[in-house]
Amino acid sequence: KNEVEQSPQNLTAQEGEFITINCSYSVGISALHWLQQHPGGGIVSLFMLSSGKKKHGRLIATINIQEKHSSLHITASHPRDSAVYICAVRSTGGSEKLVFGKGTKLTVNP
Amino acid sequence: NAGVTQTPKFRILKIGQSMTLQCAQDMNHNYMYWYRQDPGMGLKLIYYSVGAGITDKGEVPNGYNVSRSTTEDFPLRLELAAPSQTSVYFCASSYESREQYFGPGTRLTVT
Known about the structure:
The structure holds 2 protein chains of 2 kinds.
Chain A: E1 4-7, E2 10-14, E3 19-25, E4 29-37, E5 43-49, E6 52-56, E7 59-64, E8 69-74, E9 83-91, E10 98-100, E11 104-109
Parallel strand pairs in A: 2-11
Antiparallel strand pairs in A: 1-3, 3-8, 4-5, 4-9, 6-7, 7-8, 9-10, 9-11
Chain B: E1 4-7, E2 10-13, E3 19-25, E4 31-37, E5 44-51, E6 54-57, E7 64-66, E8 76-78, E9 87-94, E10 101-102, E11 106-110
Parallel strand pairs in B: 2-11
Antiparallel strand pairs in B: 1-3, 3-8, 4-5, 4-9, 5-6, 7-8, 9-10, 9-11
C-alpha cells in the first residue's frame, strides 16, 4: 500500500462546479504539499500546510492531522484548472524527503 | 529571476552511454532535489542536497550520481544508461524545507 493515496484518480467536471480532491496518508507527517502539474508537464507548488486550512484565490486546502487526511477544493472551476493535482508528504523525524501520491487528473469542460 | 533551469529538455541515449543533466537555480535556495517521474507513478526522489558539499540519497539513487560544488548548481550524472532510466527528470529547489520550485523537466529516452 502506498504511503500516500489520492482519490479520485480521474475527475471530469463542468465549468463552474465545486471540485474536491482527497489525499490520505499512513505516516506521521511534518508537512503536506499540494502541487499542480500542467498538461505541458510543468509543476507548480500550490500549498504547503501542517495544520488547518489555507486559501489562495479559488483554491482551498485543508488538513486533518488526526485523520491523516487532506483535501484540495477548487471553487467555480474553469477549464484552465485542468491539470494533474499531486499530494506529497514529508514524514516526521527530520527527513527532507517528500513522498508523492500518483496524482489526480482533473478535466474541466466548458 | 530565471528560477530553476534544466538542460537539456530532451535527450535520447543509447544503452551504456553516460550523460549529465544540468540544473541551476538563482533564488539562493540551500536545498535542491532530483526527482524522476514515470508514467502513472508518483514522483520519486533520486538525490537531494541541503547545501554546497552535502548530498544524500533519496528513494531511487542506483545508477545516478550527484555533486553540489556551488549553491546554484546541482548536476545529475547517469553512468551506463539503462532502459529503466527512461523517464522525465525534474530538478527542484527550496529554502530550507519550505515550498519547492520545480524546473521544466528533462525527458530522457534510453534505447
